[in-house]
């Protein structure tokens, strides 16, 4: 008798619109992770021949880095540079005369840097996608993420906003997940523990409905960040 009651309850729950809306539609993604690294100039050593200037769009030198640190900043799209006196945030801006250009970022506005169209990157809730298939502000739902506990103890609702793009993010099912100051090796990185840092993994996803998308964009204060996100400690301190 108990078995039939349980079966009936399950059926009733799964026919509800909310249950159906949460379901994926069978599409699978290829995931990777990117983050915002901190570069410590004092501890990073290289020869004079291996130094590289981070240039502004106007061609002015913003800071001089070792080539490996320059490459890391370019690969991740943004970085902190700790010069021993202050920590400055830099963000990739554009290519001019075949040279990458960067801009400083106001940490009070976008502590993690900018995505596309000057939107703020929102760790664990923003993703880079191929803009041939998606537009900034599009929302996807990933069942694998729903209920995951984040480093600040927030519980993930499974929804991600397209806030960024990238040279290596090509194809309709290719997504790069932004995880703030934690890279794919960090035990504190919730998405890494769930397997989103391994492109061999596949996870189901679907496009959010328009009603869901509007609610998610409002909840995350797109294209900005939630006020609480700017105040939380793990969002405002660089992690190495």
From TrEMBL:
UniProt entry keywords in alphabetical sequence: Signal
Residues annotated as domain 3D: 126-183
According to the record, the signal peptide region is 1-20
Q: Which Pfam families match?
A: 3D
InterPro entries tied to this protein: 3D_dom, RlpA-like_sf
Cross-referenced Gene3D superfamilies: RlpA-like domain
Protein name, as recorded: 3D domain-containing protein
Source organism per entry reads: Bdellovibrio reynosensis
